[in-house]
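Deliverable D5.2: sample structural annotation.
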Amino acid sequence: MTMRINGFSGFDVEGTVTKLMTAKRAPLDKLNQQKTYLSWQRDSYREINSKLFDFKQNKLTDTFNKSIALTTRKATVTGNTDAIRAEATGDATSVPMKVKVTQLATKATIQPEGQMVVDSSVTPPKTATLQTTLDGLSEYKNVGTPPSDGSAEILKLTINGKELKFSSTDTISSVIGTINSSAAGVIASFDEVTGQFSLAAKDYGTSKIVLSDSSTKSAMSKLLNLSTDSSSVNNKPSKGSIIEVTSLNPDGSESASSTFTAKDNSIVVNGISLTLLKQSDATNPSTITSTVDPTKAVDTLKSFIQTYNDLLYSLNTKVGEAKYRDFPPLTDEQKKSMKDNDITNWEAKAKSGLLKNDDILKSTINSMRSIISNNMKQLSELGITTGEYFEGGKLYLNEEKLKTALMNNPQQATQLFQGSSDTKDGIFSNLATVMTNSMQKLSDRAGTNKYSGDLSSVFKSESVMGKQLKNYDSQIKELTTRLNDAETRYYKQFSAMETAINRLQSQSSSLFGSAQ
């Protein structure tokens, strides 16, 4: 900071320059206020984006639109309760079933061919731990070829066509991390008790895990005691699950039987989602029955209505919020002369109405209400109605009417809210589409992240508002330079004036002295 000194003539240079610059700084203050206001608007858009994302992804997609969310039946397992877990979906029927699990699905695996040891000279051999390094294994001296310069050796292992590289100083723990985070599609594990390393496919349906491209073991596969031979008994292919299902008559007698298969341990039969836990005993099958129970569907719709109303209220509040045009953002100079409480109160009004009558929000509100109004007849049959006009589309639920409707026609709510299995054009998916379109508009305008509801996510700089803020930064930088130049020029001019005044005073004194 340059130190300014007033002249000896008594003229207040500092005060005069300050007053001159205060007037000149008015355009800069206005630019900074406009930039601040735009930044506030962008932050407010990000808050709205977070609410839309949460409603769409966490509620509509991941919760409300799941097949079990609107089920009106409850599945019960009797007999062998250890082999199967059952849950009714929205398509569940009342047909009782007897189920036998004849085969569980397994993932492709490569079992170890031996232990990984750090000392084979003792009995029993000392096995490795997760913190053991590759060059600390007994087998390393037989397969490793450390570089002559003493640096760590690079070991390679190809899994399902993906070449992975390891250092001889890597620990077993870091080897596991490298494999599991790779695109090889496998999960590595190590048992410190047995000293054995193994690989399992991440997904069901993988026929085999392929190590390298030949039956010749690499140094790395030898260290891990893994078989590269696809025909080895230790390289086990995946297997699908198999169950035998027998329909039961109302009197409990057996009807028809059929076999169902799947690549994993989840199978849906008669609208009942079966999770297979273990193979059944031949003489102890699982019996599955379903009863009408609308509790889950009622809870889902109650939660949906509450969530819908909360979002609608937030949007309506933002659109109708009062705007105080006489309260612009405060400048730094203005804040210096105000108390903290006064600053807080001022900024509360300055930030009010940031999105008043916003076109994106109004379009979102109208689209949400349109979806509801287009289905109002069916919704009212389920006990769902809208409030008064001034309530902005708020939904109300008659819970008893909903329960009765679900008992009489369990599929009605599923068809209305989740749509058919072919079109998926229910209320939930239609609302999700509205959210997606609105988040795209917010992204284009404010640079928000349409794939995240994180309030700390970085804005895209190439959005409309991002470009506007860049333009403000450019204008502010240019104007600040001009103002600094002007201030320097003022001081030079007043300095020259001081010099002239001092010279004039000196000449006057000299003339006065000569006259005497």
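Annotation notes: The longest helix spans residues 464-515. The two ends are 47 Å apart (CA to CA).
The annotation will be released with the project's public dataset once the embargo ends.
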